[in-house]
Each structure stands twice: as structure tokens, then as C-alpha cells.
Amino acid sequence: MMNADISAPQPADPERALALAYAPSSRRPALAALWALDEQLGAIVARTENPAVGQMRLTWWHDALQSLGTAAPVDPVLVALADASAIEPTSLLPLIDGWEALLDPLPLPEDSLATYAAARGGTLFGVAAKLLGGAPDAAERAGRLWALVDLAFRISDRTTAERALALASAYAMPERLPKALAVLTALAGRDLRRGLDLPRRQGSPRRVARAMLAGLTGR
């Protein structure tokens, strides 16, 4: 049974928090835990100056996910995932590989970006789609696009950002997704079309309106 305690981890990203509102209420705790895990892994990579140290920290999470069914969780995110019986913890292990790909020296080559997109975005959206009753294949493709665009607007290295957007442009926008995923995909598509020279303004009226339209229509 899922624990709907309001103290359960919630996504820090305001757009993921908005997207969460378009998920069925019974699935929100599990989806919030999934996104909180992704943010936790991303924070490790963002804080890492020594790749070996970052890899050790990611390995801890790999081992913790692998043993989640047999050992008592010690982190709030792991507790929430343990409560989310609809998510198989081992299905999340590729997320570790995705974030680990970003520990390579900058600028990141295309093969590292492709690994990152598939392992982070594909896994995250694929697992979420199964949770929300959507088609995993379409969601995985959307997840790759979303992950590449998300990276492009967060990373300081311009060459890597440009490569990420170029790879993202190869993925067609799906016709329909579970509404929570459609919100994120629609915003990523908007950012992709606008390009790096126009900053993302989270919370701007037009951006929120686009998110709400996707949340209502699923595209």
C-alpha cells in the first residue's frame, strides 16, 4: 500500500510539481518518489568535483535500490519508494547509469549523451508510464527528448548543451502521453524550438498556459 503521508518527498522542480497535479491521486505518491529519486541523483552529480567520489555516491544508491526489498531503507526517498509497491526498485537501476554518464569530462561526446538520455529519460518516463497506464515505448522516446533538453538548459558547457539539443531534435513529439508526462514533454518541446539563446522562465504566464494545456489534453 502506498503511504500518502504529506511528509513524503516531493519534487523540488516546480514544473514537475505542477505535472504531478495531473496524475491520478492514487499514483501521485509513487510518481513523486520517482521524481525525488531522480532529483537526488542529479544533485549528487551537480555537487561532484571528483568523478571517482561521484561514482562512489551513485554506487551507494545503486546498492540501496537493489536491496530495497530486503533491507530497511534509511533515506526518505527510499522509504517512499518502498511504499510505492507499483514500482519495482530494480527497474530504476538504469537511472544510475544515466547520471553516471555525466561524470565524463566536458564537453560530453554524443555517445555519453545518448547513454544519458536513454538511461535517465527513457527509464524515468518508461517507469512513470507503466505507473500511469500509458504506453512505455512512446513515453521512453519522450523521456529521452525531455532529459536532453533538461540537461541543455542546466549545464554550463555550451558545446555539450548544443549537442544535447541536436540529439533531442531527432525525437518526434508523441501524439499522446499520460497527462503528467505530457506536461513535461510539451515544455521540453517548447524549449527545444526556442533554443538556448532564449532563457527558460519557469512560472511565466505563457509557459504555465502551455503546461496546463498539455495537462488537459495529454499532448
From TrEMBL:
Organism, scientific name: Sphingomonas changbaiensis NBRC 104936
Domain of life, source organism: Bacteria
InterPro entries, sorted: Isoprenoid_synthase_dom_sf (IPR008949), Squ/phyt_synthse (IPR002060)
Name by which UniProt lists this protein: Phytoene synthase
